[in-house]
Fold each of these.
Amino acid sequence: MPVEINGLLNHNISSETHPLPFTHFDRDGIIRMAKLHDDWGYDKVLLANAAVMPDNISLAGFVAAATERLGVMLAHRPGFIPPTMAARMLATIDQLMPGRIGVHIITAASDEEVKADGDYVSKVERYDRAREYIGILREMWSNPQPFNHDEKWFRFDGGFAAVKPTRSDIPIYFGGMSPAALDVAGECADVFATLSDTVEGMTEVVEKVRANAKLHNRDPRFLMSIRIVIADTEEAAWQRADELRDTIAGNLGDLDVNTAAAKASGFRRTEE
């Protein structure tokens, strides 16, 4: 079974051990980290998305120009721009970096955070909207003719993308641990993305997603976010992990706290 190794690319070279202000934008640092991921053989990097973050679609084009083979997992929130426009933008990026883009559909960690962009739809409604949005993206990428759409969340006449993705589709990543999220993931996800968990916890997640996916004749792959500490021996690795924990604890006052993310079901599960 093929394994995909993905990294994370931010708009500056900041970490829990060497924090920088979230407002700091480092153009040269973005290029440097993109090229390092490219050289080290990573398959993709995640370009995150939130109400206060720089535009990651622009960053994706920037990464495409700076790398040879590195892919991008582009976090994207349904409903903030029309799905017809999003489909054309994503197809364009895929043409610029052929076969190297995936779209991580996210619905936001909290109601409060999305209100900063004027979205007052509840979490359950956002998942329902995402389901319809993904269907429109795929129709735009595959339909050789303009088409009309009139459903619960979106309505348009003559939606069309003249330029299609280089493949038949762009992979859809999807995450979330609430019942509404798991339902949409089973129906729509090519890859289910989740946070780190115990072996027992991951087994439970995989079984739930696969059960929902089976209802739609789908067989998604799985992506787990995890921090790996490497050393010459297990003892040395644990020592290094302890040192990192102590360093991070000392830096807490300098770190920007993501209070919105802490409310998400997946983050609460990881903490437990």
Amino acid sequence: MPRFGGIASMMRLPVASSPVCLNAAFIGVPLDIGTSHRTGARFGPRQIRAESALIRPYNMATGAAPFDTLQVADLGDVAINTYSLAKSLPIITDFYDEVLRAGCTPLTMGGDHTIALPILRAIAAKYGSVAMVHVDAHADVNDDMFGEPIAHGTPFRRAVEEKLLACDKVFQIGLRGTGYASDDFDWPRAQGFTIIPAHEVWYQSLAPTMVKVREKIGDTPCYLSFDIDGIDPAFAGGTGTPEIGGLTVPQAIEIIRGCFGLNIVGADLVEVSPPYDPNGNTALLGANLLFEMLCILPGVNRR
């Protein structure tokens, strides 16, 4: 089948209706009712899948051949309630509970960053408080947004309150931009998070940073949450809340590849908003970063 033909599943993988017998699965969560500025991330999973047809199964740079040792499929999209965040969150958690019970590692295509909270609820129900590598322009630790406790800017405040995170093993990389007050970044530091602002790593390789991240996290189960706006909008303009001065694409890849060896129990790639990048470049980048996430999972062969 030519790459432009057939069903547009992630990387043209089989579409499965059950996580049973899968080691890992790509899952779409087409929710963007938690956004605060530009909507459109609900179309992210569909566009990421379409662009992923260009990806081949062998990672030339790392030698990773994930399909040699892992059973992987596309589990389709979570059937969220597009009119209600309150109703969507338990729908998402229930879906991921089933995936995790089957021993399948979820790799998620967002959707806005609100979805990290219900996913972490399912992850923590199985593993307890987890470490996290979080790439983002924003810390997403607001106490509320327009009086609402759940939105794409609040998931990690709620995650701390619900004890879903091992706070001394949380790394937030790429934070930048303007804020409402110093508390935007001071609050996560006070919880024990390690903050690595974008301006502190301009023009630098992040490989040495990731050595320190691996040393600190060790064998603790770890969740990887990657907001595409962590990358500079020159490379990833199709997102809802772009911030200048961000990470480069090579730095983004270094972060993910630097997670190899960690006990990754789940990952997401969120906030791709195709209406703001009609050429599909942001979704193409997102698809490739998801493949890099697959390549770092425990059990992946490296030739």
Amino acid sequence: MNLNLKTPIAFFDLESTGTNISTDRIVEISIVKVYPDGKEEIKTSLVNPTVPIPKETSAIHGIYDEDVKDSPTFKVLSKDLHQFLSGADLAGFNVLKFDIPLLVEEFLRAGIDFDIEKRNILDAQKIFHMMEKRNLAAAYKF
């Protein structure tokens, strides 16, 4: 990947038990961290959410209770994930509305303050919607 970076950037995606940030939990996290020198590190983990995964949610992402029953909880992973993401800008698809708020909430439940104030955030969904308008005129044209 040829990026002009001043700080590392972490591209990440979450799978969860649902879409409610305050009550749902992460069941999988995957991160690709790219450093200014081009080095890449990948970290992926299934996460035991400590609550049942609804069948309709499992049907979407393919992760079932049986798949995560022996996986570490987010609290167990939290210190390592916090360290891995330390100093990195954040990027992904729909991260502003879902992934970052859910990640912040999970860190809070684990007793860790995950500060995003001094990070640049790149949301590919926001860029896509700026390029491909989501309004009545665009729907009519489509």
Amino acid sequence: MAHKVFIDGEAGTTGLQIRDRLTRRDDIELIQIDPARRKDADARREAMAAADVAILCLPDEPARQAVALADGLPGGGDVRFIDASSAHRVAEGWTYGFPELTPDARAAIAASARVSNPGCYATGAIALLAPLVARGVLAADEVASINAVSGYTGGGKELIAEMQGEGAPDHFVYALAQSHKHLPEVMAHSRLTSRPVFAPSVGRFAQGMVVQVPVQLNGRRIADLHDALAAHYAGERFVRVTPPQARVVPTALNGTNELELSVHGSDDNGCAVLVAVLDNLGKGASGAAVQNLNLMIGAAEDAGL
């Protein structure tokens, strides 16, 4: 029997990519509402009532409102949620949807009624930092510096329109006031006790992402960092640790749910750079949502990916 899925926010960039990944599957029945009623609370509530899983591709406050709509269903409703916004990434009662993060993450996601999709920048940063902190290779109170560049599709419709228009910049850095919404989840799920310094940026390319974490070795070796990451992700389908490359290209994994991690630097110079490459709309958004959905409904984890 097909599992019924409602994508609330289907018309957005992430929602469209999730829909495209699911429409080809015979184990998924998509519940859709008339586009003219996509903001109608009654129509959305009816769709949630009929769904096994609702995937929220909405800004933060509308995502919270969507959960409240389901809470208003008789008996609280049986619908399970995957929230692609940042509204619930550190919220009590929500499971963080990063299956490769810990040994028990998959089981927790599979059993959860409320799963929060990781942010795109956060996926790269946490994938690099969390295993190193867990293994004691990095201290939890070490002040991390995170630099990143993303394709412009991560910024929503207004930024997409701007970057596709005439006169758009080739690249810009933003959120330097250190209040970016991904910072709380990076700290929480990497187990950092010191707030990282984060410098995100956007390039004039649609999708793709590189996240970089510079590290002073302070007696550690490049091999210590690489081996800790390789051990943590050994055997993973979507996350792999690779040798350093001469050039790191943010668009290299576009259209996939893959995440590549590498360690660059020199023991002699005492410096390293941890690097993550991913598609901000793949493993950083829609691909991750489908991976979590697969776990929640008992499908093959790579179905549709």
